[in-house]
Amino acid sequence: MDPNYLVYGRETLNTVPGRWFGRQKENSATAQTGHSKAEKSQPKRRIRPHNKSRRGCLNCKIRRVKVRLVAEVLFISYHRLNLPKCPENHPACENCQGKDLICVYPPGLRNDVQYLGDPARDVSSQQAYLQPRRKVADFTIADMCLLQHFITDAHPHLPVGNEHIYTRALPALTYKHEYVMHAILGLSSSHLALLTGSALPVEALRHRQRALRGLNEAMSQAPGEATDADAMLAACYILTFQSSYMPDGLSDYIMMLRGCGLVTTLMLQQNLHGSFSIDANSHIKYMEAQFGRFPTIDSRIASDGIRSLSLVKPLLKHPVEETIYQLLVDVLVSIEQSASCAAYVHLTNIMNEFITLPQCEVRHLLDPENQSSQVLMAHFLILLAILSPITSMEATNRLCNVPMVGMLSWVANIWTHMSGKMAERYLMWPKSVVETIRANTSRTGVLVDDVLVLIMNSPDKLLSQHGKAR
After folding, report:
1. Can you tell me which residues the record assigns to a coiled coil (predicted)?
2. CB-count burial class (<10 Å; 0-12, 13-18, 19+) for 311
3. pLDDT exceeding 70 applies to what percent of the chain?
4. What pLDDT is stored for residue 8 in this prediction?
């Protein structure tokens, strides 16, 4: 066989069948003549040089590459993020100066003679760049999967009306506020563990510790701009939700709830209008549109709760205990009267009370040795479960995949710590509700949807013997 059989040069081109090129075989002389005429008639195209600069500093290059990778995972258009390019100021660019980083430009830019200085200076600057400096976390592909789970399933729904912030605006802030990324990964990991029934990963707690450390550092100084306040508020809510998934997270839950209120107040006082849409009464204003859709909860469940709380009243000694007691009664009475809207408003009053109480009074309520306050906290947690058909309206979608196993564990912990006749007398109703919910849930982790279906479809299972007799 001819070794040049598959080599198509000018001399062999005419021997190739015309059908290979999608045309009929034509006379070679005619083809050559037509080709030469076409070349003369068409002007040559000028190749326009690109205007992209390749002379940015190394820090800006790394930052843009990281954000591009995150954008690809989140299916976000990279160009819509409008990331600032390196301004290429010498000897240090404005981006590095603002972040207190050592600015180093890549060597070997032969066409940039005016910026080439002393070779000794170039070497020293590169050595300085390689020295240990502010540690930046290396996030893995597994972390990107957790980020995707956060965006699709695990993000908070509070503050109400701002759910889209967690899925659109917040991921773009993580490159500047690293502690927010750790908060996201911690919550997503905890949420995924409860859904799959696996043990809480150690990495989830590590992310939480790093997020708390970064949040404390950020809150130690006033936010410089609205995006800083957005990052602080988002981290507070994310850590609050993660606390609700932890078996021993009651104290953390209340403290992080207070952090949400603190940052919100700070944003309103300093007029920091960022991505979050909030004001003094934004929660109730937003929910007023949902009031007409609130379901009615069986009044007999509330009657059992009122009867249980009445036993606790003689134990109350501290003013804050009496305040919380009255707020709990207000919620239960509203449910008993089929006033779902009033019950929801009273529940938000309890939340606001936890946020605004002095620190010493909060410690009093959370003291595990204070039996009267622990009984009140157990009743409060049961109210959160009973009102889940109403509170689920806070989200754009039903909170079907939000775990409640953590909060139910808090009630069980209070029961176990108290035990004896004290627990049997004052915690019988909370304990009975928790056991009924667990008994009627087939999966390992109890979700809001499980509690919601039980309360709306099978309320008789939650009633005491006295309640069933009514």
Report:
1. none
2. middle
3. 75
4. 39
The alpha carbons of the chain give a radius of gyration, in whole angstroms, of 32
* Beta carbons of 287 and 160 less than 8 angstroms apart: yes
**SS3 assignment, position 11:** coil
Tokens of 164: 């889209």
> DSSP string of 339-366?
-HHHHHHHHHHHHHHHHHS-HHHHHHHH
Specify the 3-state DSSP secondary structure of 315: helix
The pLDDT value recorded for residue 443 is 65
Chain mean position to CA 157? 9
> What angle in degrees, to the nearest 10, is found between the helix axes of 405-418 and 226-244?
60
Residue 421, pLDDT score: 84
Cβ-based neighbours of 156, under 8 Å, separated by 6 or more: 163, 166, 187, 237, 238, 240, 241
Contact (CB, 8 A) for 335 and 301: yes
Cα 25 to the center of its chain, rounded Å: 65
Place of tokens 């773009």: 172
pLDDT at position 122 is 45
| pLDDT number for residue 47 | 59
Whether the bond into 201 is cis, omega within 30 of 0: no
Q: Write the single-letter amino acid at 35.
A: H
Tokens 């409060």 map to which residue? Answer: 380
Residue 408 class from Cβ within 10 Å (0-12 exposed, 13-18 middle, 19+ buried)?
Answer: buried
User: What is the C-alpha separation between 81 and 364, in angstroms, rounded?
Assistant: 47
Residue 274's contacts (CB-CB under 8 Å, 6 or more residues apart) are 226, 227, 229, 230, 267
Give the count of beta carbons closer than 10 Å to the beta carbon of residue 208: 23
Question: For the chain, which ranges sit under pLDDT 50?
Answer: 1-31, 36, 38, 109-136
Range 129-132, long-range pairs (CB < 8 A, 24+ positions): 129/58, 129/102, 129/104
